[in-house]
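can u pls check wat happens w/ (2R)-2-hydroxypentanedioic acid
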Amino acid sequence: MQTHKMQQKTPDQIIHISALSTIVGASNVLTEDLQSYELDWRKKFEGRALAVAKPKTTEEVAKLVQYCATHSISIVPQGGNTGLVGGGTPDLSGEQLIINCSRMNQVLDVDLINNTMTVQAGCVLQSIQELAASNNRLFPLALAAQGSCEIGGNISTNAGGVQVLRYGNTRDLVLGLEVVLPDGQILPLLTGLRKDNTGYDLKQLFIGAEGTLGIITAAVLKLFPKPSAKVTAWIGLSSVPAAMQLLTLVKSSHSESLTAFELISRRAHEIVLRHIDGAREPLNETHPWYVLIEVNDSQKQDRLQESLSEALMQALENETIQDVVISQSEQESRNLWALRENITEAQVHDGKNIKHDVSLPISQIAQFIESADAQLEKAYPGVRPVNFGHLGDGNLHYNICPPLQGFTEAQWMAQWEKVNTIVHQQVARFNGSISAEHGVGQLKRDELVNYKSAVALNTMITIKKALDPSGIMNPRKVINSA
Ligand code: FAD
Ligand code: 2HG
Ligand code: ZN
């Protein structure tokens, strides 16, 4: 990786860095080799920061923010830096302070009667899942970046992932929060109460705010019973309408046991087979579409396996589906999941693509795909949509690769806005949203004004100005409030 030398600092900046160092310790204010903080996961957004401060406690965060507020220094909160919309990347000014929460990784409490876990914001998602499991509980937020994303980042993006169908988005998994406001005050909402109607539910403002309203320092998370049985199936189908029919069928046969219903196009699957070591074709023949289903429950493993087999045999008989393999062990389940979860990583190796993270009424998905495919083909003959996503939630990752000939990577990236416009106009036509789960960040900020009502945008700006009148907290992310 290319290293970046420290930019020449002005006398004022040197004073700031020294003052910040007295708050968190000199070794926790980084000013050199910042690329892993200044560049986003996809290498699409890159900025230059004044420094990266790495606090350990809420009090340190509060002092850092107070200092920044007093000296008009803009702040970019950051967790694991796996975000896909540039929300955690600073601008190019070299004047913004990244406050990275990774050292705030303490578990503060596990309450097995209230079924809650209280954690600092820098806890890595996978470590939270593992601690829940070791206590015979489930923390159900799950996504491919779980080994490096942090709960503060998950909450700030209201992350979705692969179990939303059963357990909801991150918003549904948070009972309480502690937040440092843009003036440095600590807002104490760290409660594990399941009922609290004492006025506005303030925590909701910060969930999904992408760090624009304050820095989340800790959270109380909901835990669930750990399922005793889990079955995964990989299914080959001929069309998206067939996948939608299957969704209806499995919802009625397995109702709340259905935790995941993921759609994968043949093109997405081929990319994984091509680029991911150990990836194997699970079915004998190829199919235009695949669905990965997971059901879990507190019944016996063989009973759950039997009931899912029965439902899928019925779907085979009536030709809703063409073929199916059902996991017989935890390892087989993991292998099937790897085929789904590695799509993003495999796409990185396959060349640059133009991403879309859209949500639609589930009933409109097939028509949306047909219509968006047709519009893109008209504009770019031979274009290759790589379609996959959380069909059970109506969430598609409709990522567009260029035609095989005619575009260099740079030329294709230059089409980003035009391709976005074509796709997002179809999203609007079918009453969808241009950001289902990844957020807005800088990637979709300017486009948002075309798809959200003026009243909604103005209400967002009013809230931003009320909480952050000097605009220091992650400025120019999500909305332009200046
Ligand atoms: P960062 O990237 O560091 O930050 C994200 C945003 O949150 C930024 O705006 C940042 O300013 C803000 N922020 C971070 N920490 C705080 C804090 N403590 N207080 C206030 N603001 C803060 N997302 C999904 O929803 N579903 C998926 O299935 C999914 N799969 C992914 C798969 C891969 C391979 C990758 C690379 C990403 C995926 N993502 C997915 C996107 C990403 O992982 C999530 O958005 C994740 O929640 C970001 O967490 P993070 O800690 O990396 O946050
Ligand atoms: C997923 O569902 C993530 O795997 C990433 O949300 C989607 O790469 C993407 O576009
Ligand atoms: Zn996703």
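The mean pLDDT is 97.
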